[in-house]
Amino acid sequence: MMIVRSKAPLRISFAGGGTDVAPYFQEEGGLVLSTTIDKYAYASLRLREDRSISVRSLDYDVVAKYHRDEPLMYDGNLDLVKAVIKHMNQYDEAQGLDLFLHTDAPPGSGLGSSSTMMVALIGVFKHWLRLPLTPYEIAELAYSIERLELGIKGGMQDQYAAVFGGFNFIEFTDSAVIVNPLRVAPHILNELEYALLLCYTGETRLSANILTTQIEGYVQRHEEVVASLRHQKEMAIQMKNALLRGRLNDFGDLLHQAWLSKKKLASQITNPQIDRLYQVAQDQGALGGKLLGAGGGGYLLLFCPFDRKHIIAEELEKAGGQAVKFGFEDGGLQTWEV
């Protein structure tokens, strides 16, 4: 029995997050600097002899069963999966299948795991059905299903990062998304990876609530929110330039500035525990850092001097954080069969 598998990498976003959320990017254009890391969303698809569909998700600890002949209703339970099955049904309605899903980071952790799972799901169906989808088309479809059809609030960067992989400077406009892969010298990437520390704050969050506040702030033209989004774009450009030129201490400082700016987008972005962990890291010598994702919990990314990184990690653990090992991943969506 053939099994098709896919994996797509999770991402860390350095600057520009929030400028990829409608309606901001449609009106002013968005810019995001990000890279993918060696943490993944996985999907496996196995064909069945009957016409039933079973979905097992390790992240949500659920097993759900459906039948090809009954309509899939969106009810907040595995809607991402149902939406992809519904979309792919137009290509093959006959076959029953088993889906097995899991990610290396919990949903709501700020690493883009939900959108990355969507990309992995589309990838596994694309491979099985031999669909001639380009990387841009996969990312567009993932965005369209998650954000437009299901109405889940969020930006566009995660889908493109997961499909393309690697260090990218991504431009968002009303008419197109352009992924610019960055050619960063290996010694700069090694040094940056050595300097970065990922710390789990011990909380996940619903990013939609934070994004609603941010979107309202922009639509109502709150001065602080508009200025912060424009500043995020400027930070993305400056950080890209610092990275390509190997000015990594500048990069660390810009990371700090981007975080100060991000906090102005919505009051729920940070909380006392996150602020405490960030302060502990700074007190121990971290040059800068930021919370990944929309905010409210998840992972802190910190830029540390090489001889202080281990001490910063120890102090963060004492303060209730959890240091997580990671490396950069330069590949994007991958699919294969067994």
Q: Examine the secondary-structure arrangement and name the CATH architecture of the largest domain.
A: 2-Layer Sandwich
The radius of gyration computed from the alpha-carbon positions, rounded to a whole number of angstroms, is 20 Å
- Overall tally of structural domains: 2
Q: Could you tell me the mean pLDDT?
A: 93
N/C terminus separation = 9 Å
Helix content: 40-55%
Order of helices and strands: EHEEEHEHHHEEHEHHHHEEHEEE
Label the overall shape: globular
Q: Report the structural category.
A: alpha+beta
| Unreliable parts | none
User: Which fold name is given in CATH as the topology of the largest domain?
Assistant: Ribosomal Protein S5, domain 2
CATH top-level class of the largest domain: Alpha Beta
Largest beta sheet, briefly?
9 strands, mixed
Q: Number of helical runs?
A: 11
User: Beta fraction of the residues?
Assistant: 25-35%
Number of strands: 13
Describe the structure in your own words.
This protein is α+β, with helices and mostly antiparallel strands. The chain folds into 2 domains: 3-183, Ribosomal Protein S5, domain 2, CATH 3.30.230; 186-329, 2-Layer Sandwich (Alpha-Beta Plaits), CATH 3.30.70.890. The chain is built from 11 helices and 13 strands. The chain has helices at 24-28, 79-88, 113-129, 135-149, 157-164, 186-195, 207-219, 223-244, 248-262, 272-283, 309-318; strands at residues 3-15, 30-48, 52-57, 62-67, 96-103, 168-172, 177-181, 196-200, 288-291, 299-303, 322-324, 328-329, 334-337. The strands form 2 sheets. Strands 1, 2, 3, 4, 5, 6, 7, 12 and 13 form a 9-stranded mixed beta sheet that branches. Strands 9-10-8-11 form a 4-stranded antiparallel beta sheet. Helix 2 runs parallel beside helix 3, helix 3 (113-129) crosses helix 4 and helix 10 (272-283) runs antiparallel to helix 11. The mean pLDDT is 93.
